[in-house]
Amino acid sequence: MKVATAAYPIEWHDSWQSYADKVTRWVHDAAGNGAQMLVFPEYGAMELASLAGAEQAGDLAGSIRAVSDRVAEADALHSQLARDTGTYILSASAPVPQGDVIVNRARFFNPEGKMDWQDKQIMTRFEREDWGIAGGGPLKVFNTAFGKIGILICYDSEFPLLARALVDAGCEAILVPSATEALSGYSRVRIGAMARALECQCVTVMASNVGEAPWCEAVDLNVGRGGVFCPPDKGFDPNGVLSEGVLNQPGWTYAEIDFDQIAEVRKDGVVLNLTHWEEQLPRVSAVELSPL
Description:
Layout: E1 2-9, H1 16-32, E2 37-39, H2 54-57, H3 60-68, H4 71-85, E3 88-90, E4 94-98, E5 101-109, E6 115-119, H5 125-131, E7 133-134, E8 141-143, E9 148-151, H6 160-168, E10 173-177, H7 183-200, E11 203-212, E12 221-222, E13 227-229, E14 241-244, E15 251-256, H8 259-268, H9 273-276, H10 281-284
């Protein structure tokens, strides 16, 4: 499967047509380069807040309302683009109301335009303390024509038990849409994605926002790039990197994911992290305190 993962600039739009034209251009560019699965970043949908004007877009609560009001239209657009291009599309996540809370939801479209979604599980301090975003659920594994796909949104990729739960349910590749405002944040998510690829003997696909959007407090600064990571084992890159873009340069990063090779490494790799995971359990429950 050829995947395209985005380094996506958050931009101001004076009209719905401006936004639709941008997303259409990005999708057709990736599909035209042979991509079969497209991954947009976390909170990339915040650019929809610009359609409500500067005052509402610049207010945290107001920006949530503005984006939520447009999510249905954005979903219809992505559904049509998935059908038009015959691709799977993970659209940029957005804050949306779910009952009495707001969740961070990434919507996943298949080539027939059918949609499902994954909610972020564990919130960062900004989401908890400033923005009032709550963890959603549950974790899901998506059956695709290529293999089983999971999604860990940004901070979620830094928690190994979440990835392990996906893998125990059959997941072979994990998409990691992210939004990070500094190199340190980007590095944390990148390291998390690489660690999950190592532990779970799978491929992880990281997307990022890039550039500045001073009119939107939630995503005013953005640092990142696209990256596709793998277990550094036979048949894969020895550095654990299948492909990586240029830091803070907008555009797609492409890579081929070989699901047969994932299965082979899990079965007969130089190391067998996935198989040997269970050997940790009796040892972590029997730690002794040394008197030294």
